[in-house]
Design a protein that fits this description.
The chain has seven helices and two strands, in the order αββαααααα. The chain is mainly α and about 200 residues long. It has one domain. The radius of gyration is 18 Å and the shape is globular.
Length: about 200
C-alpha cells in the first residue's frame, strides 16, 4: 500500500458519510422535478454508491462494510440530535425559532426507511462489486461500478419508498417517487463512473 492510499481512503470515506448525512436531511422534503415527485435526498444520495465502490477498491470489503454501518449510526445520532434540539425550549429573547423544528425535526418513519434502505442496498452493492472483481479481475473497472449500482439502486429505491411512503401517500405518488429515484440515481451512476479510476486498488 503506497503512502497515498490511506489519504485517499480517508477522503473518500469522509465524502461518503457527508453525502449520506446530506441526503437524509434533504429527504425530509418531497420535491416535484420534471413531472416526477421525489425526495430531495435523491439529488445527493446516488453518489454514495460510487463512493462506496471507491472505498471498497482502495481499502477492501471489510472497511467498506464498517463504513456503511458507521454512516448509519452517524445518521441515527444526527436525527436524534435534531429531535432533541427541537424539543428543548427556545430562548424567547431570540424568538420562538419554530423554523428549526419545522424543517429539521425528523419524521422518524423517513429516518428509519432511509437507514434501512441505505444499509441493505449498500451491503448488496458491496457483494455485487466483490463478485464482479472476483470473476473479471482488475479489468473494466467502470463496469464493476455500473453492475453493482444497477443492482443496488432499484433495491434501495424500492425499500425506501415502501417503508417511508407506503400506506401514507397515494400509490401513484409512491410509484412516481420510486421511478424518479431510479432515473436520477441511474443518471448519477453514469456521471460518477469515472471516479473509480481516481483511487488505486488495494493490494492483497
Amino acid at each position: 500500500m503506497n503512502s497515498r492510499t490511506p489519504n485517499a481512503a480517508v477522503l473518500v470515506a469522509v465524502a461518503y458519510v457527508a453525502a449520506q448525512m446530506l441526503a437524509d436531511i434533504a429527504s425530509l422534503k418531497i420535491v416535484f422535478v420534471a413531472g416526477f415527485s421525489m425526495d430531495a435526498g435523491t439529488l445527493v444520495y446516488p453518489f454514495t454508491f460510487t463512493l462506496r465502490d471507491m472505498v471498497h477498491k482502495v481499502a477492501g470489503i471489510h472497511v467498506a462494510r464498517l463504513l456503511i454501518f458507521a454512516a448509519a449510526a452517524v445518521n441515527l445520532l444526527m436525527a436524534g440530535l435534531f429531535r432533541l434540539v427541537a424539543w428543548l425550549p427556545a430562548d424567547m429573547q431570540v424568538g420562538p425559532q419554530e423554523e428549526f423544528s419545522a424543517v429539521l425535526s425528523p419524521v422518524w418513519r423517513i429516518v428509519f426507511a432511509s437507514i434501512v434502505a441505505e444499509v441493505v442496498a449498500e451491503l448488496v452493492d458491496g457483494e455485487t462489486y466483490r463478485a464482479w472483481v472476483k470473476r473479471v479481475g482488475p479489468r473494466l473497472q467502470w463496469m464493476r461500478v455500473l453492475t453493482s449500482n444497477s443492482v443496488s439502486v432499484p433495491l434501495d429505491s424500492a425499500i425506501f419508498c415502501s417503508l417511508a411512503f407506503g400506506g401514507v401517500l397515494a400509490v401513484p405518488v409512491v410509484l412516481s417517487v420510486f421511478y424518479a429515484n431510479v432515473i436520477v440515481k441511474g443518471i448519477v451512476t453514469l456521471v460518477s463512473l469515472p471516479w473509480i479510476y481516481l483511487v488505486k486498488e488495494k493490494k492483497g
